[in-house]
Amino acid sequence: MIRSFARAAALVALTAATSAFAAYPEKPVTVVVPFAAGGPTDVVARTLAQAMGTQIKGSMIVENAGGAGGTIGAGKVARAAGDGYTLLFHHIGMATAPSLYRKLDFKPTEDLIPIGAVVEVPMTIIAKPQMAQTTLKDLLSFVKTNADKINLANAGIGSASHLCGMLLQSALKADLTTVPFQGTGPAMTALLGGQVDLMCDQSTNTTGQIKGGKVKAYAVTSKNKLATFPELPTLASEVAGFEVGVWHILYAPKGTPADVITKLQTGLQAAVKDAAFVAKMKDLGAEIMPVDRQNSAAAKALLASEIAKWSPIIQAAKVYAD
Q: Where are the alpha helices (DSSP H) in the chain?
């Protein structure tokens, strides 16, 4: 009798849990973007949230929690309840944070569950309007021989522009004067005003400025040329092997039920096929991840491989943040 009662109770609990998962989401899902509103990651996140909300039949709200290279927002989600109602949309910074920050209060590979990789955004090498060099070859030659006179802007330690800048200096063996700003907007403003010379930033942030002729554009960091800027060469055409893209992954806190992860993963895979999402990403120069990376296992593997890739680069540069 007791065993029968126990089995019945377990069955009721399982049925209730299954029903709860089936009903998910019953309230708005918050997607935390660990950067300022209006930035490149924020633009992609908001476009995804709109398309994905339709797919999971719920509301997805974007919340900006910027600061410390994205670690403040990421830490907030890592400490959130694993119920599927607080998610994180982060870029390549998740792979560099363990090496950049001495006092990181969360572990990317342990405290968060990747739901799927979403898009990869190529970087662009741009300069102030007054820059005299007209070709990529001429620019790189100038940089190598005048490194001590050139200012390289970035959106702050841990930002995508900071990482690309470090990789560029390493590849060119040129030690430039780096100027960190409090976000992409201020860095771009300084570049437009001629207060700094160069910047390497995501195409999602630079496309409008390049098309408007407000900055000088020299190259893209993708393996192949971009349809958005067919006239721009790849940086690899002059710097062998140079290739960097800013991938973006959607995460949930550890402890989130597998059923919820599966539902979110399915919703993500459908959302990236949405016509409006596809059109927006094309306009921004962002490339939608291959379908075999739009799942939890593949995204987890990507994160681990990128942590291994960036760790020695950051250690060699000896750039750290508290």
A: 2-23, 40-55, 71-78, 93-100, 108-111, 136-145, 160-172, 184-192, 203-211, 258-271, 275-284, 296-317
